[in-house]
């Protein structure tokens, strides 16, 4: 079926809805496709429905397809770098995409493929370029290294139209500093799905971490 294209404004409306589903979007690096279903079930059970599967492992696209079968889950694809990544993610069943940055080619592909995309920005100029193109919901990456919550707080006054999902270096200890800001919708983080727990099949502990993350207060 041919994809239905989306405008940048519609993409941002949809990514805002996804970001509002829970305070934390788990950032997942999944090596083994057998982990996809139990991992998604554990995170959804803990209250985190939006799941960013990074395209950093050979299994990633198959993992997205498996997660798409989990009731209540909203599988997405992270680390989208090229138009081909966008197409492959959408074909695998991703309902949203995330990129560490933004290029014209990537934005055009997301719009043409109708894939809600969180494009990345780390400076006021990058955020302004995306705003001019119609994007009002952005990923702030790499959040801690690029200035942290203080940086995002400073952007809220001159760029109040833009909302962010900060990602990169976020943990239970600093998440609240971001989530309390008026221009933050949610935050991304890998801490809810550590490699060791996935390898041990300790899905109950992942659900516990997810439940704690889902309970973080938002401003
Ligand atoms: C990433 O792309 O790896 C994310 O930014 C996750 O970062 P984190 O591992 O610091 O949560």
Compute the CA-based radius of gyration.
16 Å
pLDDT average, as an integer?
Answer: 97
DSSP helix fraction: 40-55%
Distance between the termini: 41 Å
The structure class reads: alpha/beta
Strand content range: 15-25%
Query: What is the string of helix and strand elements?
Result: HEHEHEHEHEEHEHEHEHH
- The helix count comes to 10
**Assigned CATH architecture:** Alpha-Beta Barrel
The overall number of domains is 1
Ligand inventory: 3-phosphoglyceric acid
Provide the spatial order of strands within the biggest beta sheet: 5-4-3-2-1-9
CATH homologous superfamily annotation? Aldolase class I
Largest sheet: 6 strands, parallel
Q: Predict the CATH topology.
A: TIM Barrel
For the record, the CATH class is Alpha Beta
Overall shape: it is globular
State the total count of DSSP E strands.
Answer: 9
Low-confidence stretches: none
Note down, in words, how this protein is organized:
The protein is an alpha/beta fold and 219 residues long. The chain contains 10 helices and 9 strands. The strands form 2 sheets. The protein has a 6-stranded parallel sheet with strand order 5-4-3-2-1-9, with helices on both faces. It has a 3-stranded parallel sheet with strand order 6-7-8. Strand 6 (120-121), helix 6 (124-132) and strand 7 (137-140) form a beta-alpha-beta unit. Helix 2 packs across helix 3. The longest helix is centred in the N-terminal third of the chain and has 13 residues, at 8-20. The chain binds 3-phosphoglyceric acid. Residues 27, 141, 167-170, 188-190 line the site of 3-phosphoglyceric acid. 3-phosphoglyceric acid (3PG) binds next to strand 9.
């Amino acid at each position: 079926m041919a994809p239905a294209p989306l405008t940048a404004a519609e993409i941002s409306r949809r990514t805002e809805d996804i970001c509002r589903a829970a305070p934390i979007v788990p950032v997942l690096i999944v090596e083994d496709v057998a982990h996809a279903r139990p991992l998604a079930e554990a995170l959804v059970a803990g209250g985190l429905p939006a799941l960013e599967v990074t395209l950093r492992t050979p299994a990633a696209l198959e993992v997205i397809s498996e997660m798409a079968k989990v009731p209540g889950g909203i599988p997405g694809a992270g680390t989208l770098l090229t138009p081909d990544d966008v197409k492959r993610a959408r074909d695998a069943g991703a309902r949203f995409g995330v990129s560490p940055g933004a290029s014209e080619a990537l934005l055009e592909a997301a719009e043409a493929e109708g894939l809600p995309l969180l494009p990345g920005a780390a400076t006021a100029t990058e955020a302004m370029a995306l705003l001019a193109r119609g994007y009002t919901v952005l990923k702030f990456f790499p959040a801690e290294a690029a200035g942290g919550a203080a940086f995002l707080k400073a952007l809220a006054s001159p760029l109040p139209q833009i909302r962010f999902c900060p990602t990169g270096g976020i943990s239970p200890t600093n998440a609240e500093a971001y989530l309390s800001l008026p221009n933050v919708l949610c935050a991304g983080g890998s801490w809810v799905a550590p490699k060791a727990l996935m390898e041990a099949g300790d899905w109950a502990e992942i659900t516990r971490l997810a439940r704690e993350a889902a309970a973080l207060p938002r401003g």
